[in-house]
Amino acid sequence: MNLPAAIAHARPNAQWSLNGNDYANLQWVGPGEPPTMEELEAAWIQVQRIQPPAEAYQVRAWMIRGGMDPDLVPAIIAQVVPDGPQRKEALMRWDYAVRIPRDFPLVDVIGAQMNLTPQQIDAAWPDILDL
């Protein structure tokens, strides 16, 4: 589960911070009480329905328009994924996937290497889908 996206969906007007993707690190400001894990799990299911996968061309076009170089992604994958079958599969997905699900783990990993937080990616996803 992408905890920041679930929290934002469950409590859209709340202020909070989170270190990592761990509920134990949630710093709640409010208003109201923080959502329970059960509420967040339900919210995450809804978020996934709201954020459909993007087409690969949409992601690449958004990157280019945002000043990011999609040609750097294979090098990023080589840095963050251990050599072997996992790396080969990650590179194959980047080269050949038609759709990129928002919740695919490499989206946040690659985003982090390009100085994007998961929250920034979540916020950009509708723009990506509009391309």
Radius of gyration: 16 Å
Portion in beta strands: 5-15%
The count of β-strands is 4
Sheet with the most strands?
Answer: 2 strands, antiparallel
Name the helix and strand elements from N-terminus to C-terminus, one letter apiece. HEEHEHHHEHH
Residue share in helix:
55-70%
Mean pLDDT across all amino acids: 92
Rough outline: globular
> What low-confidence regions span 5 or more consecutive residues with pLDDT below 50?
none
Main sheet: strand order: 1-2
- The first-to-last residue Cα distance is 26 Å
How many domains, as an integer?
2
Given the helix and strand composition, which structural class is it?
Answer: mainly alpha
Count of individual helical segments: 7
In short:
With about 130 residues, the chain is mostly helical. The chain folds into two domains: about 5-50; about 55-130, no CATH class.
Explain how this protein is built.
By secondary structure, the chain is mainly alpha-helical. It folds into two domains: 48 residues; 77 residues, no CATH class. It is built from seven helices and four strands. The strands form two sheets. Strands 1-2 form a two-stranded antiparallel ribbon. A two-stranded antiparallel sheet has the order 3-4. A hairpin with a 7-residue loop joins strand 1 and strand 2. Helix 1 packs across helix 2 and helix 4 runs antiparallel to helix 5. The two termini are 26 Å apart.
Features:
single chain; 131 residues; mainly alpha; 2 domains; two-stranded antiparallel sheet; 56% helix; globular
